[in-house]
Design goal:
The chain is of the alpha/beta class. It is built from six helices and nine strands; from the N terminus they run ααββαβαβαββαβββ. The protein has one domain (53-211): 3-Layer(aba) Sandwich (Rossmann fold), CATH 3.40.50.150.
Length: 225
């Protein structure tokens, strides 16, 4: 119990810190981050670092990480997720992002998360089942192709550096709808985190900040698997 209480206090401190920094700007995102136990999505040997402002490695091909915790409100606040939304996450990673999205869209919503690396997929699946988010639709496959079975999506989150917004994902995005992705090569200089808002007239883009992500793998990524 003391173990769990210590993590709860760290979650509360994290949310307070991110509110003060302006990363968290809405109550739903704050509440989701308070409810999801980030430590349960870490490698067991690294759980004590769950609430540090840094990424941590997870099982995969050596490049996969659970992103620094502040990157999740940075991503989800612009998407403006609400109950009932259909959300697609490309790059499930640890499953933590999908769990947060599940909290934000509620039981009436749908979260589809696609992971291309089998070992990472199995890690995410285990984490989501263990923490009560087994209703996330987790798929092993090429996320750049999306998942037509859950479309149209109100929001899409791409969690790896992409050359551009993959055409299949743009097609599967509802209009109006929002998609966010790091755009640019995985280099020392990082990428632009870009928000795409689809409208009946096409869409508009807005660069939010500079970020650093691993390259997106898949047919519409930097390399095919």
């Amino acid at each position: 119990m003391r173990y769990m209480e210590g993590f709860r206090r760290q979650r509360e401190a994290m949310v307070a810190r991110y509110r003060a920094a302006g990363y968290i700007t809405s109550n739903p995102v704050a509440e989701a981050m308070l409810r999801v136990p980030r430590e349960e999505f870490m490698e067991p040997s690294l759980r004590e670092y769950a609430y540090m402002d840094a990424p941590s490695p997870i099982p995969g091909d050596g490049r996969q990480t659970i992103s620094a915790p502040y990157m999740y409100p940075v991503t989800y606040e612009p998407l403006k997720l609400k109950p009932g939304d259909h959300v697609l996450e490309v790059g499930a990673g640890s499953g933590y992002g999908a769990a947060l999205a599940r909290e934000l869209v509620g039981k009436s919503g749908l979260v589809v998360a696609i992971e291309i690396n089998r070992e990472t997929y199995e890690f995410a699946s285990s984490n989501l089942e263990r923490t009560g988010y087994g209703d996330v639709r987790l798929i092993l496959g090429d996320g750049t192709l999306g998942h037509p079975g859950g479309a149209p999506y109100d929001a899409v989150s791409i969690t790896a550096a992409s050359p551009d917004f993959p055409p299949p994902l743009v097609e599967q995005l509802r209009s109006p709808g929002r998609m966010i992705a790091p755009i640019g090569a995985a280099s020392f200089y990082g990428q632009d985190l870009v928000l795409f808002e689809k409208t009946g007239e096409g869409g508009k883009r807005r660069t939010l900040m500079q970020v650093a992500y691993v390259p997106l793998i898949g047919e519409h990524g930097w390399t095919r698997r």
